[in-house]
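Much of the work behind modern protein science is quiet bookkeeping, done one molecule at a time. The protein below has been through that process, and both of its lines are reproduced in full.
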Amino acid sequence: IVTVLAALGTSARLEAQPAPLVIDAILQMKGQAAFSGLASSQALQAFEKWANANGGVRGTPIHFDVHDDTTSPQVALQLANAAISRQASVVMG
């Protein structure tokens, strides 16, 4: 019995989950335009959940990393520059 269990254990391969595709989203979560930023954030979260439940992007899960620009163009520029320095594949704003 031990030999059979050992053989089954070595023949079963565990496949690692691929790292998620991170998409930076710069939104207005505070300040004068917070109502639109909140709605956009909720829509991105709903889409992320739906997309990942349906296989993601070619089998890779996605994740929206939401950054708050506090309705300030200067903060939005800083966040965009930070994403560029990380060599982000996609930045939404």
In short: The chain has three helices and three strands.
